[in-house]
Amino acid sequence: MIDKIYTSIYKAIDEVNIQLSKNEQLSKDPDTILYGDSSVLDSLGLINIIVAVEQNIADDFEKIIILADERAMSQNESPFKTVKSLVEYIQVIMDD
């Protein structure tokens, strides 16, 4: 399941990279920073990633999830910080 979640996120990264300049594009790596001072994404870019990931998860797993909710916002560390933290958060959501 983890590999399939990574694939869903990497497809979302491909979608968002189309809108970014060459030097701002996100790499498809677990340590890629999605949110925070070191991220190349602005708030709209982060929203685009989140929406694309939700859609890809729905398509790939036939399960509807909502990533940006009170549960995500109440975490001590943002689940959107890196690709890896997002994968871990999606696993938790999908196991509920």
Brief summary of the model shown:
The protein is mainly α and 96 residues long.
Describe this structure in words.
The chain is an all-alpha fold and 96 residues long. The protein has one domain (2-15, 31-95). It is 54% helix and 0% strand. It contains four helices and no strands. The protein has helices spanning 2-17, 43-61, 70-73, 83-95. α1 packs across α2 (43-61). The model has no long low-confidence stretch (mean pLDDT 94).
What are the low-pLDDT stretches, counting only 5+ consecutive residues below 50? Answer: none
The end-to-end span amounts to: 14 Å
Q: Give the radius of gyration.
A: 12 Å
Give the overall average pLDDT: 94
How many domains? The number is 1
Portion in strands? under 5%
Report helical residue fraction: 40-55%
- Quick one: biggest sheet? none
Q: Give the helix tally.
A: 4
Structural class: mainly alpha
Approximate shape? globular
Order of helices and strands: HHHH
What is the count of β-strands? 0
Sum up the structure in keywords.
96 residues, 54% helix, mainly alpha
Describe the SSE topology.
Layout: H1 2-17, H2 43-61, H3 70-73, H4 83-95
